[in-house]
Amino acid sequence: MSGDFLWGVATGAHQTEGNNTSSDWWRFEHAPGAPVGEPSGDAVDGFHRWPEDMDLAAGAGFTDYRFGVEWSRVEPEDGFISRAAVDHYRRMVEGVLSRGLRPFVTLHHFTLPNWFGRGGGWLRADAKQRFLRYVDAIAPVLDAGVAHVGTVNEPNIVAMFAADTGRGMSALRRGLPLPDPQVTETLVEVHHAARARLKARNPKVAVGWGVSVQDCQAEPGAEHLLADYTRPRDEVFLHAASDDDWVGVQTYTRIRVGRGPEGRPVEVTDPAARRTMNGWEFYPEALGGALRRVAPLVGDVPIIVTENGIATEDDDERVEYTSRALQSMRAAMDDGIRVHGYLHWSMLDNYEWGTYATTFGLVAVDRATFTRTPRPSLEWLGRQVPSQRTRS
């Protein structure tokens, strides 16, 4: 891995590109009675406007740019590889590099090709083989100069979607369900197989995956239940990264774990707690808490904060949240935790899996014209890099 601390912004393919019509999420969003406030539609037209977005990131002082490759565009029908889509993503990698940024590419971010989803999705008997075929197909993209590859974004949330028919981030506000065990097993197998395939082609590429890890804290009297809560929800996915080049931590809030019926762990909420606009507790120090919980689980594997941010209409609140989160990260690093990077979610206001109302972006986007308007937090965060570059 590079000796430099990764300092960047993150985006997601389906959430920014628009008109991802060959994906299972597009089909889900348009299904009768779908539990979404609105479909993704044009998103923020990132498929065409990515040069402007990269210009903004580079101009603000960031060094790294995370974006996704959309499998359903690369392989819209079973066995048909779109050379035009592969070339599009290759040009994006070249665009990142030409601006002095480093590309960080995610291969799967919640969405699947429709044909794959209709056939059972991750429960298909041939799921691993089909994913590896996609990995092989995008070799020209990765060979263009990608140093960091994430195989599956938040595999634990993917497995939770499979276990909860109320698919979408709004469903997760009721609490984190137990991940589907079969999907969990499959995703771990797919991740390991994809890592081996990627490393065989390019031993220097740094491969890992980003896990949703919140700061889980036990309420008094429930300390013995904390492991029962965290083990299936994130720890199994963190342990699966034991041979990776890095492991991603994606943190937004804390979760309080108490004792429920029959002595089972349950999430405890405080109605008086300060909340973000999507209903999560405003608790920036969750980042430091999550890093401290992850470090002993992954051993010598370097940690990259692959997502951290806040849904808010108030940019001053965004700066407050992010400043406190970075302070908690710095304190963890000072205590010896190996953090190799920080990627902020999100570069842009985008589609948050059922709604555009929750705004995470350092850059505001007009939904009618797609005009990008940088918020003050963009330049502010870009300037923080000198104080964060030293690694522990």
Automatic annotation (TrEMBL):
Q: Which UniProt keywords apply?
A: Glycosidase, Hydrolase
Cross-referenced PROSITE patterns:
GLYCOSYL_HYDROL_F1_1
Single GO biological process annotation from the record: carbohydrate catabolic process
One of the record's GO cellular component terms: cytosol
Per the Swiss-Prot or TrEMBL record, the active site comprises: E307
Q: Which GO molecular function annotations are given, in alphabetical order?
A: beta-glucosidase activity
Reply yes or no: does the keyword Hydrolase apply. yes
Which Pfam families does the annotation name?
Answer: Glyco_hydro_1 (PF00232)
Q: Please report which protein family the annotation says this sequence is part of.
A: Belongs to the glycosyl hydrolase 1 family.
Annotated protein name in UniProt? Family 1 glycosylhydrolase
Q: Which organism is it from?
A: Mycolicibacterium hodleri
